[in-house]
Design a protein that fits this description.
two-stranded antiparallel sheet; 2 domains
Length: 143
């Protein structure tokens, strides 16, 4: 670990301790977790998982299967790879149009509005940041 990184960690810890403890009596207790977390993030060579188009397409397929013919979805889907395990939890409104065909009525998805969503990724080392974006997922959900 470089000297600048160590200095930053020390400054970060000292700054946090001075804010939380004006008397500076519990400095080590106050800074233990922020420093440990920061050091583990800096040591981890892969801080963020990048979600690629293939992953977006697979997550969209799983979500479409769960949505079915509904106009509203509230639930979770799990996606597992060799690299990470993920869960998408969302509450979304599903907009559809009705198309009448000789075979019956077809209701394609025309828009998905997420009211709330969370996408978590976990690796063997624990929960990991990711660059998931619902706006990137949305095109794969539309018919």
């Amino acid at each position: 670990m470089s000297r600048k990184v160590k200095q930053f960690i020390f400054f970060f810890a000292k700054f946090k301790a001075e804010i939380r403890s004006p008397e500076k009596k519990s400095v080590f207790v106050e800074i233990a977790r922020p420093c440990t977390t920061l050091i583990s993030l800096l040591k981890n060579p892969r801080i963020m998982i990048e979600i690629d188009n293939k992953t977006y397409a697979e997550i969209a397929r799983l979500l479409r299967d769960e949505i079915g013919d509904a106009d509203y979805f509230n639930g979770s889907i799990d996606y597992d790879t060799d690299e990470f395990y993920s869960t998408l939890t969302t509450t979304s409104i599903i907009f559809r149009t009705e198309t009448h065909c000789p075979d019956g009525v077809f209701r394609p998805i025309t828009d998905v509005i997420p009211l709330w969503w969370e996408f978590t990724t976990t690796q063997a080392t624990g929960e990991t940041l990711n660059d998931f974006s619902f706006s990137e997922l949305k095109p794969y959900l539309l018919d």
